[in-house]
Specification:
By secondary structure, the chain is α/β, with parallel strands linked by helices. It has one domain: Alpha/Beta hydrolase fold, catalytic domain (Rossmann fold), CATH 3.40.50. 40% of the residues lie in helices and 18% in strands. It has twelve helices and eight strands. Strands 1-2-4-3-5-6-7-8 form an eight-stranded mixed beta sheet, with helices on both faces. α6 runs antiparallel to α7. It is globular and about 45 Å long. The two termini are 22 Å apart.
Length: 289
């Protein structure tokens, strides 16, 4: 039986929690959907105006219907979570925030799904807390380091940085045009909602720019440590990703102990949105077998 739609709305699932983890003392926002013996935590990317719900709203219902509890964490400095300037590793900061959230919710072990920055954060969490990770699903990120084939920073990353500095609808459309393979599927309503999200918390935009000025390497290269991670991992990439090139995904498969990879063609940096139905089927199969 499907869970009633109202339970899966952003508003109905919205929660706040105060976390204290190391030097972190801040309020996090998260969405909490469904219930079950196993929990899946989804970690969003670093685009302006991003949130757990905006990134993963096409992926929550199938997991809830299959009997999973699904938690979408808004990272520090995004959406309704507290603002922060990150002067060190953003990946480690988000991993510590996730640990604080899991401790507050009394969750010992979870599966992690992360795209882009969220994938970096999931890897950082797995390295610091190996016993607390069930399985990993990583899209468009997971380890830093340069592509061997594409000049860095990539076209998409340059457009993100421009959007943070000048949050206009035109800059948003320029970024989204290379974010997905086929931008004709993006509606004016989606653009406006994303822009409204960005402008609602201008301090997040300003702090992101300040963070990069303080430390241009926000997402360190975990390549040399990937072999420490034994959790089963499913790597999902878009062949046409213009933000994080596909050879970065191959590095994950090469480095992790137990990884497999699926590549979508005609797909950019947002695989879980661009190919939602197939993505959801693959993830459910991976988690349950």
């Amino acid at each position: 039986m499907n869970t009633p739609t109202v339970v899966l709305s952003e508003t109905a699932s919205s929660r706040f929690v105060r976390i204290q983890e190391g030097d972190l003392d801040l309020q996090l926002h998260y969405n909490d959907c469904g219930s079950g013996a196993e929990t899946v935590v989804m970690l969003h990317g670093s685009g302006p105006g991003a949130s757990g719900w905006a990134n993963f709203n096409r992926n929550v219902e199938p997991l809830v219907a299959a009997g999973y509890r699904v938690i979408l964490m808004d990272c520090p400095g995004w959406s309704k979570s507290d603002p922060i300037v990150c002067r060190a590793s953003r990946s480690d900061l988000n991993a510590r925030a996730l640990k604080g959230l899991l401790d507050a919710l009394d969750l010992e072990r979870v599966h992690l799904i992360g795209n882009s920055m969220g994938a970096h954060s999931a890897v950082a969490f797995a390295l610091a807390n190996p016993a607390r990770v069930g399985k990993l699903v990583l899209m468009g990120g997971g380890t830093g380091g340069p592509s061997q084939f594409v000049p860095m920073p990539t076209e998409g990353i340059k457009l993100i940085q421009a959007l943070y500095r000048e949050p206009t609808i035109d800059n948003l459309k320029r970024m989204m045009a290379v974010f997905v393979f086929d931008s004709s599927s993006l509606t004016e309503e989606l653009y406006q909602a994303r822009l409204d999200n960005m402008l609602a918390r201008r301090e997040h935009l300003e702090n992101f720019v300040k963070s990069f000025a303080a430390n241009p390497k926000q997402f360190p290269d975990y390549g040399p440590r990937l072999g420490e991670i034994s959790a089963p991992a499913l790597i999902i990439w878009g062949r046409d990703d213009r933000f994080v090139p596909m050879d970065i995904g191959l590095r994950l498969v090469w480095g992790l102990q137990n990884a497999e990879m699926h590549i979508f063609n005609r797909c950019g940096h947002w695989a879980q949105w661009e190919h939602a139905d197939k993505f959801n089927r693959m993830v459910l199969d991976f988690l349950t077998h």
